[in-house]
Amino acid sequence: MTNTAENNKRIAKNTLLLYFRMLFMMVVSLYTSRVVLNTLGVEDYGIYNVVGGVVAMFGFINGSMSSATQRYITFALGKGNMDNLKKVFSTALQIHILIAVIIILLGETIGLWFMYEKMQIPAERMDAAFWVLQCSILATAIMIISVPYNADIIAHEKMSAFAYISILEGMLKLAVVYLLLAFNSDKLILYAFLILAVQLLIRFRYSSYCNKHFEESKYHHIWDKRLFKEMTGFAGWSMFGNLSAVLYGQGLNMLLNVFFGPIVNAARAVAVQVQNAIQQFVGNFQMALNPQITKTYAKGEMKEMHKLMFRSARFSFYLLFFLSLPVLFETDFILTIWLKTVPENSIIFLRIMICTSLIYTLANPMIIANQATGKVKKYQMVCGTILLMILPISYVCLKIGCPPYSVFIVHFCMESVAQLARMIMLRPLIGIRLRDYFIYVYSKVFVVAILSVVFPFFVHENLDNTITRFFAVCITCVLSVGTVIYTVGLSKNERIFVRTKAVSMINNILHR
Question: Which residue windows are transmembrane per the record (predicted)?
Answer without folding.
Answer: 16-33, 45-63, 95-116, 128-149, 161-182, 188-206, 315-335, 347-369, 381-401, 407-425, 437-458, 470-491
